[in-house]
Structure formats: structure tokens, C-alpha cells
UniProtKB/TrEMBL annotation:
This is Pectinesterase inhibitor domain-containing protein. SMART domains: PMEI. Pfam families: PMEI. InterPro entries: Invertase/methylesterase_inhib, Pectinesterase_inhib_dom, PME_Inhibitor. Its main location: secreted. Residues 1-24 form the signal peptide.
Length: 201
């Protein structure tokens, strides 16, 4: 009787182990497919490596959904823009900053504030869109999403342009440019993924 119980227990444990392994394999295959979807989608962007690096960790949330991919790409852009805005605000106290540089930093700070606002508006609008929808309201909202995202890219460009000219060259410009360019690249990628989402409707 005891041996029969032990055998049953062993068989039950083996069954659980086999089931767990099968579930793990299925999950791995599903995640692999989701990751491949992101990789393929990122190939349509101007900065595919940055795109995949930023979004691949969200594969289980995206699940091959073009709208969700664009949504998370915008969320990443917003986070990057907020971080850059904070960084630029700290540069107003940069050691040895000239009056012209200070004005450029202040202007850049304003532009980054606008960038955050416009990307946030774009994300809110995008969240209302549904996969497969193609009515007039859909295209009106999608147009708003694109307009705000393009405007955000323009703000980023204006920030960088404010440091134009040889007189502005130096460490301060280099430090700010590095942060701002990362925002520009993330936002450019988000726009490409928004357009990819639109192309499927």
C-alpha cells in the first residue's frame, strides 16, 4: 500500500514537472514570437537598434499588437524627454556658462517642456484607437497623434538649433546634445511605428 502511494506520488510529481516544462516552452516560444515582431517592426524605423533595445523588454505586454507597440514607443519617448528636461534644467547652473549659453539652455528647457506635453497628448489620443478600426473618427484621432508627435520632433530640433555656431561649441553643448538626440531618435522611432500601425488599417 505504501509502495503504491509512493509510486502514485512519483508519477504525480513527474506529471507536474512535465506540465511545467511544457508551459515554460510555450511561454518561451510566445515571447520569442513577440520579440521577433518587435525586431521586424523596428526595421521600419530610422534607428532600429535603439528601437529594439528600448522596446524588446516589453514584448510580453506588446504581444504582436502594432498599436500597443506604438503606444509603448511613445511612453518611452516621454520618459526620455522628461529625463532630458530635468537634465537641461540642471545645466542652467553649469560652471562657467555664458549669457548666450544660458539663454540657449533656457530656450531648450521650454522646448523640452513642449515636447513632453505634445508627446503626452499624442499618447492619450493613441490609447483611444482600436486595432482594426478604420472609421472617420479613427483617422481624425490618428492625424492628431501624428501632428503632436511631429511637433514634438520639431521642438527637439529647435532645442539643438539653439546651440548653433562655433561660439556655442564646448562641453555644455556636447552634454546637452547627447541627451536631446536620444529624445529625437526615440520620438522619430515612435512616429515610424505610429505610421506602421496606420498602414495596417
Amino acid at each position: 500500500m505504501a509502495r503504491s502511494f509512493e509510486l502514485s506520488l512519483i508519477l504525480f510529481v513527474l506529471y507536474l514537472s512535465t506540465a511545467a516544462i511544457a508551459m515554460a516552452r510555450n511561454l518561451e516560444e510566445e515571447l520569442s514570437g513577440d520579440t521577433e515582431f518587435i525586431k521586424a517592426s523596428c526595421e521600419t524605423t530610422s534607428y532600429p537598434d535603439r528601437c529594439f533595445q528600448s522596446l524588446s523588454s516589453y514584448a510580453s505586454e506588446i504581444k504582436k499588437q502594432p498599436r500597443k507597440l506604438a503606444e509603448i514607443a511613445l511612453a518611452v519617448s516621454i520618459a526620455r524627454a522628461k529625463s532630458a528636461k530635468t537634465y537641461v534644467s540642471e545645466m542652467t547652473e553649469y560652471k562657467g556658462i555664458t549669457k548666450r549659453q544660458h539663454e540657449a539652455v533656457e530656450e531648450c528647457l521650454n522646448e523640452m517642456g513642449d515636447t513632453v506635453d505634445r508627446l503626452s497628448n499624442s499618447l492619450k489620443e493613441l490609447k483611444h484607437l482600436e486595432e482594426g478600426d478604420s472609421g472617420e473618427d479613427f483617422w481624425f484621432s490618428l492625424s492628431n497623434v501624428r501632428t503632436w508627435t511631429i511637433a514634438a520632433l520639431t521642438d527637439v530640433t529647435l532645442c539643438i538649433d539653439g546651440f548653433g555656431g562655433k561660439a556655442m561649441n564646448g562641453e555644455l553643448k556636447s552634454l546637452i546634445r547627447t541627451r536631446i538626440m536620444s529624445v529625437a531618435e526615440e520620438t522619430s522611432n515612435a512616429l515610424a511605428l505610429i505610421n506602421d500601425f496606420a498602414s495596417k488599417h
